[in-house]
Design goal:
Blueprint lengths: L1 H21 L6 E10 H12 L2 E3 L10 E10 H9 L4 E6 L2 E6 L4 E10 L10 E4 L4 E4 L5 E7 L4 E5 L6 E4 L7 E6 L26 E5 H6 L9 H6 L4 E2 L9 E2 L7 E5 L2 E3 L3 E2 L4 E2 L6 E7 L13 E7 L8 E6 L3 E11 L3 E10 L1 H5 L4 E2 L4 E21 L2 E21 L11 E24 L2 E23 L6 E26 L2 E23 L7 E5 L4 E17 L2 E14 L2 E15 L5 E11 L1 E4 L10 E4 L7 E13 L5 E18 L17 E17 L4 E15 L9 E2 L6 E11 L3 E10 L3 E2 L2 E5 L12 H5 L1 E4 L5 E2 L3 E13 L4 E9 L7 E8 L6 E7 L3 E9 L1
Parallel strand pairs: 2-5, 6-12, 16-21
Antiparallel strand pairs: 1-3, 4-5, 6-9, 7-8, 7-10, 10-11, 13-20, 14-15, 16-17, 18-19, 20-21, 22-23, 22-54, 23-24, 24-26, 25-26, 26-27, 27-28, 28-29, 29-30, 30-31, 31-32, 31-33, 33-34, 34-35, 35-36, 36-39, 37-38, 39-40, 40-41, 41-42, 42-43, 42-44, 44-45, 45-50, 46-49, 47-48, 50-51, 51-54, 52-53
Keywords: Cell outer membrane, Membrane, Receptor
Main location: membrane
Subcellular location: Cell outer membrane
C-alpha cells in the first residue's frame, strides 16, 4: 500500500512539473541577475529556469546588446520591460511563447558612405536597398547616402555596377553612420544575391539623363590612340559632334556655349584640344560623367541645352599605383596613392602631344623658294588631393591646367628668279593658342544622418590669342613692309556655392542651396602695327576694358513619391545677373513626373525653364577656336529656353536591357550671332555688342535608345530624328534658316565584346545627315597667281555674293570605327596593347568644304576634304 502511495505521489509530481513550466503569467515572480551580458543571455536564463520560450527573427531583432540587471523575485512583465524597452523591442505572449518584435511605429535613419573596398574611392550612384521594406536610395556625387527605415530592419543590400553586392547587417538600435566597402568583381568570385537591388530605369523620376563611366569611354574605339569622353557622348542619341572627327557637342539643336560642363563642380569654358579633334578630359582620372539633355534638376543652371557633370577620381587611400601610356599622338601618365594611409590621398595625371617634336625642323618646300613650317602642341595636367578630417568632414582640393599652341611659318625667297621679276624675300609667322585653368576647394559635412552639405569655392578661366607677323623686303633697296597683329580674349569665373542634401524619409529627397559667381570678361584686345616704308607708322591697341558681371542663384528641389506609382520632382531656381548697372532677374520652374504603367513600363514628362547670362560669339566660317565669351549687356539680354519632354522607359526583368523613347520641343530666345560680314577681328571694339544680331531658335525631335548593360556583349543602339531652326531680323533677310548643325537623322550603334580573359573588341558605327552650310553663289576676283602658302592678293580682292544662310546641305556621312585591346596580367603590373581604326572602311565623308579654282578654265568650284582611314596603336602599363 505504501509503495502504491509513493508511486502515485511521484506520478503527481511529474505531472505537475510541466504544468508549472507552462503555467506562467506576467505576474510570475522571476530572478534575473546579469552584468554586461547580451540580451540573449537573459532570454536563455528565463527559458532554462522558468520554461519561458522566446521566438524572434534574427534578421529583425538583435539581442546582442549588453545589459545589466539585478531583479530578485520580481514580476515577469516588469523584468521584461526593463530588459527590452530601452531597445524598442516589443513582446507579446502567443501560446507558451514570448514573441519579440521591433516597435513598428519607430523609424531610424541609416547614413554613411559607399566606397571601393580596395582603394577607398567613394562610389557615385551606388544602390542601398532594404528588400524587406522595398525601400532604397542611391549615393550622391560624394558617395553619401541617407535612408530612413523602420527600426525592425535588420540588414541592407548594397550594390554597384562592377562590384560584388553585399548584405550589410544593421545594429539593433541607434542611427549608425556606415562606411561600406564593396569588392570589385574582378577580385572576387561572383556572388549572386536574389533580391533586385539596382534601381530600374522606369523607377527613376529623372529623364533625359545618361550615365557614362570611365570603363565605357576606354573601351570605345580610339582616334590616334586617345580615348575620349566627348567622342563617347557623341555616340548617344540627341548629341551631335558638329564636323566629322570633331569633339564638339551640340545637344538637341543647341550651340556649344549652351552646354554646362562641370569638372568636380567647376565650370569649363572650352573642352577641345588639337583644333577640336580631342577633348581636354583625360579618362584615366575620370570616375564617372552624367549627361543631362533635358529635364534639368533645379541645382543646375546657367545654360540652355545640356549639363555634363564629370567627377574625377579621389586617389587610392591604401597603396601607390599608376599607369603610363604612349600612342601615335601623345604620351601620358597617372599616379595615385595615399599621403597618409586611410586619411589623405592624391592623384596626379599629365599628358603631352609630341607632334611638335616630330615636325621640329621639318620644312615643306615647293622647290621654287617657298617653304612652310607647322608645329602643333597640346598638354594638360590634373591634380587632386582629398583629406578625411573626421567621419563627418572631408575636404577636396583639385586643379587642372591645359593649353594648345599652333605655329605656322611660311617664307618665299625670290632673289634667284630668272623671269625678270623684282627679287624679294617674304616671311610670315602665325600662332594661335588657347587654354583652360580651373581650381576648386570643396568641404563635405554631415550635420545629421539626414542632412549632408557641400561647400565649394572654385575658379576657372579660358583664354584665346592669335599672333601674326609679316615682313617683306627687296634686298639692296629701302623698300620693305613690316606688320604685326595680335588678338587676345579671356574669360574668368570665381564662384562660392553651398549645396544641401536632405533625406527626411524615403518618400522625399530634397536638395537646396545657393551660389554667387563673379564673371570678368575681356572680349578682345586687338593690337596692330604697320611699319612699312611707304606708310605712316601705325601702332594701335583697341578695347583694353574688362566687363565684370555678378550672378546669384538660389534653388530647391524635391523628388517626391506621391503614390507608389507616381513620383514628382518639383524644383525652382531663382537667379539674377548684374552687369553695367543693369539687373536681370528670373524665376526658373522645373517639373518632372513619372507614372508607372502595367507590365513595368513608365511614362515620364518634364518641363524646364532655363536662363543663360553669358554668350559665345561663334564664326560660321571657321573651325578654329576663335569663339569669344561675352556677357549679357544693356544691348544684349540673357538667353532663355523652354523645353518640354515626354517619353516611356523600361528595364527588362533580367536587368540586361534598357529601352527609352523620348520626344522633345525646345524654344530659345535672345540667342546671338555675328551680323553679316562681322567676325571676332572687327568686333574687338569698345562695343562688340553692336556687331551682333539677336534672334530666336527652336528645335524638336525624337530619340530612341536600346542598351544592353550586362554580359560579355554590351553596347547600345540609338536613333535621333531632329529639326533645329534659327531666325534673326538682320541675318538672311529676316528669314528663318536651319542651324548649321541641323541634322535630320542620326544613327549610332556601339558594341563592346569581351573575348576570353585577354581580348576586348569594340565597334562604333554611325550614320549622319549632312550639315547645313552657307556658300557663295558668285564672286568677283583678280588674276594674281595663287601661292600654296600665301593667299595672295586675289584672296583679298575677291568679293563673294553670299546666298541663302545655310542653304546648302553637305553630303550624308557614315563611318565604322574599330578597336582591339589585348590585356595581360604580369606579376607586378598589367600591360595592354590597343589597335584602333578610325573610319575603318575608308568612307569619303565631308570634313571641310572650300572653293578651288580650275587651272584650265579659271572657274571656281566647290571641293571638300575627307578624313581617310586612320590606324593607331598605343601601349599602356598599369602598376
Amino acid at each position: 500500500m505504501m509503495s502504491l502511495t509513493r508511486v502515485l505521489l511521484v506520478g503527481m509530481l511529474l505531472l505537475l512539473f510541466p504544468f508549472r513550466a507552462i503555467a506562467w503569467d506576467w505576474n510570475t515572480k522571476v530572478t534575473v541577475i546579469l552584468n554586461k551580458q547580451p540580451l540573449r543571455a537573459a532570454c536563455e536564463l528565463l527559458e532554462k529556469n522558468y520554461g519561458i520560450h522566446f521566438s524572434y527573427s534574427r534578421d529583425i531583432v538583435d539581442l546582442s546588446a549588453p545589459v545589466s540587471i539585478h531583479a530578485q523575485n520580481r514580476p515577469l512583465k516588469k523584468v521584461l520591460d526593463e530588459l527590452f524597452t530601452p531597445y524598442d523591442i516589443e513582446f507579446t505572449r502567443i501560446g507558451d511563447q514570448v514573441v519579440l518584435t521591433i516597435k513598428k511605429s519607430m523609424t531610424r535613419t541609416i547614413s554613411g558612405y559607399i566606397e571601393d573596398g580596395v582603394t577607398k574611392e567613394r562610389l557615385i550612384g551606388a544602390t542601398v536597398f532594404s528588400p524587406s521594406r522595398q525601400a532604397g536610395t542611391v549615393t550622391n556625387q560624394y558617395g553619401f547616402f541617407s535612408l530612413t527605415i523602420p527600426k525592425d530592419t535588420g540588414s541592407l543590400v548594397v550594390s554597384y555596377v562592377g562590384y560584388t553586392p553585399l548584405r550589410q547587417p544593421l545594429p539593433a538600435t541607434g542611427s549608425p553612420q556606415l562606411i561600406v566597402g564593396l569588392q570589385p568583381l574582378s577580385n572576387l568570385p561572383e556572388v549572386v544575391i536574389t533580391e533586385s537591388t539596382q534601381q530600374k530605369l522606369q523607377e527613376q523620376t529623372q529623364m533625359s539623363r545618361i550615365n557614362v563611366n570611365a570603363a565605357e569611354v576606354k573601351a570605345m574605339p580610339k582616334l590616334l590612340g586617345e580615348a575620349d569622353l566627348i567622342r563617347a557622348l557623341q555616340a548617344l542619341p540627341g548629341v551631335s559632334g558638329g564636323m566629322e572627327g570633331a569633339s564638339g557637342l551640340h545637344v538637341r539643336g543647341g550651340s556649344p556655349d549652351q552646354n554646362l560642363i562641370l569638372v568636380d563642380g567647376t565650370p569649363v569654358f572650352s573642352s577641345s584640344h588639337l583644333l577640336g579633334l580631342f577633348s581636354i578630359f583625360n579618362p584615366d582620372v575620370m570616375k564617372t560623367a552624367d549627361l543631362y539633355k533635358g529635364a534639368f534638376p533645379a541645382r543646375f543652371g546657367g545654360r540652355l541645352s545640356s549639363v555634363i557633370d564629370i567627377s574625377l577620381k579621389d586617389g587610392d587611400m591604401r597603396k601607390v599605383h599608376g599607369d603610363v601610356a604612349i600612342g601615335l599622338l601623345a604620351a601620358k601618365f597617372k599616379v595615385e596613392g595615399p599621403i597618409v594611409k586611410d586619411k589623405t590621398s592624391f592623384v596626379v595625371s599629365a599628358r603631352r602631344s609630341y607632334l611638335d617634336v616630330l615636325t621640329n625642323g621639318a620644312n615643306l618646300t615647293d622647290g621654287k623658294g617657298q617653304t612652310a613650317y607647322f608645329s602643333p602642341l597640346f598638354y594638360d595636367v590634373n591634380v587632386k588631393v582629398n583629406h578625411i578630417f573626421s567621419p563627418k568632414d572631408r575636404i577636396y582640393a583639385s586643379g587642372y591646367f591645359g593649353q594648345d599652341n599652333f605655329l605656322i611659318k611660311a617664307g618665299r625667297d625670290n632673289t634667284n628668279n630668272t623671269s625678270g621679276q623684282t627679287p624679294y624675300i617674304e616671311n610670315s609667322r602665325f600662332q594661335i593658342g588657347w587654354g583652360n585653368g580651373i581650381g576648386s576647394l570643396r568641404w563635405n559635412h554631415i550635420y545629421t544622418p539626414q542632412l549632408f552639405s557641400n561647400l565649394t569655392l572654385n575658379y576657372s578661366q579660358y583664354y584665346f590669342f592669335t599672333d601674326y607677323r609679316y615682313k617683306y623686303e627687296v634686298p639692296g633697296t629701302d623698300e620693305q613692309r613690316s606688320q604685326y597683329g595680335k588678338y587676345y580674349s579671356r574669360m574668368q569665373n570665381g564662384s562660392l556655392k553651398m549645396d544641401f542634401d536632405y533625406r527626411p524619409n524615403p518618400k522625399h529627397a530634397v536638395k537646396f542651396g545657393g551660389e554667387v559667381t563673379e564673371h570678368i570678361f575681356k572680349p578682345g584686345i586687338s593690337v596692330y602695327e604697320d611699319k612699312s616704308s611707304d606708310a605712316v607708322p601705325m601702332d594701335t591697341v583697341t578695347n583694353k576694358t574688362s566687363i565684370p558681371g555678378w550672378e546669384f542663384a538660389l534653388y530647391g528641389e524635391d523628388d517626391w513619391e506621391v503614390l507608389k506609382s507616381l513620383h514628382i520632382n518639383l524644383g525652382m531656381r531663382a537667379a539674377a545677373f548684374l552687369v553695367e548697372r543693369r539687373a536681370y532677374v528670373s524665376l526658373q520652374p522645373r517639373l518632372g513626373v513619372r507614372w508607372m504603367l502595367p507590365y513595368n513600363w513608365a511614362v515620364k514628362g518634364a518641363y524646364t525653364y532655363m536662363n543663360q547670362y553669358i554668350h559665345l560669339l561663334t564664326n560660321n566660317g571657321t573651325a578654329l577656336p576663335t569663339d569669344l565669351w561675352v556677357p549679357s549687356t544693356q544691348l544684349v539680354p540673357p538667353m532663355l529656353s523652354r523645353q518640354a519632354t515626354a517619353g516611356i522607359a523600361k528595364t527588362s526583368n533580367n536587368r540586361k536591357y534598357e529601352i527609352s523613347l523620348e520626344a522633345y520641343h525646345k524654344t530659345m530666345d535672345n540667342i546671338i550671332e555675328y551680323k553679316e560680314n562681322a567676325s571676332f577681328i572687327n568686333s574687338a571694339t569698345t562695343r562688340w555688342d553692336t556687331k551682333v544680331a539677336i534672334g530666336k531658335g527652336w528645335s524638336y525631335g525624337m530619340e530612341f535608345l536600346l542598351e544592353k548593360k550586362k554580359g560579355t556583349t554590351r553596347g547600345w543602339l540609338g536613333y535621333t530624328l531632329a529639326w533645329s531652326t534659327r531666325q534673326f531680323p538682320e541675318v538672311n533677310g529676316g528669314r528663318a534658316f536651319p542651324y548649321k548643325y541641323d541634322r535630320r537623322h542620326d544613327i549610332e550603334l556601339v558594341v563592346i565584346q569581351q573575348l576570353g580573359k585577354h581580348w576586348e573588341v569594340s565597334a562604333s558605327w554611325e550614320f549622319n545627315t549632312g550639315n547645313a552650310l552657307t556658300l557663295a553663289t558668285s564672286s568677283y576676283e583678280g588674276n594674281t597667281e595663287v601661292s600654296p602658302f600665301f593667299p595672295g592678293p586675289d584672296y583679298y580682292n575677291r568679293v563673294d555674293h553670299i546666298g541663302e544662310r545655310n542653304g546648302f546641305r553637305a553630303g550624308n556621312s557614315h563611318r565604322l570605327d574599330l578597336s582591339f585591346t589585348y590585356t595581360k596580367q604580369k606579376k607586378w603590373w598589367t600591360k595592354s596593347w590597343n589597335f584602333s581604326f578610325y573610319n575603318a572602311y575608308n568612307q569619303k565623308n565631308p570634313f571641310y568644304y572650300y572653293m578651288r579654282k580650275s587651272a584650265d578654265t579659271q572657274t571656281r568650284y566647290l571641293s571638300r576634304i575627307s578624313i581617310p582611314i586612320i590606324p593607331s596603336v598605343s601601349y599602356a602599363i598599369k602598376f
